[in-house]
Amino acid sequence: MLDSNFNAKLGDFGLARLVDHGKPSQTTVVAGTQGYMSIEYVTSRQASKKTDIYSFGVVALEIACGRKPVVEELESSQVLMVDWVWELYGRGQVIEAADPKLCGYFNEEQMKCLIIVGLWCAHPNHVSRPSIQEAIQVLNFNAPLPSLPLDMPEVTSSYRPPFTYGTGTSERGKTY
Question: Ranges for the Protein kinase domain (predicted)?
């Protein structure tokens, strides 16, 4: 989405309505777009700054990688982009996650920064995610890159979602 000055603006990541963080949610089902929702949002249905940071991280990775957050593999298998990028990061091959349509025409330092900040924001543990100010400082090269674990941290059982990512059909008939 662009404003009148053609500045990029992001939407609501698929959430159906605004959430008043001070009041309990009246929603009885999880509202949001698969792949953009953090584990704690899926389990608690409570939006917060940290759930927004997670979504920001997924969008940053989507821009850098040119991939959707959830990619269909074979018939019933799905690959989560965050998992795929974190695996490349752990092998020291994070630049390989860059959008292949760019054909290598990008600044590697900037691409690496965007991808690592995306992973940092999409960290499975909400406590380990940065504030938006911290993320922007790193993106502007005013702070060093964060040091992330080489292996994607496991989500504790208290944050495990009540469902698994499977296939289904949206109301528009599109399979996800």
Answer: 1-148
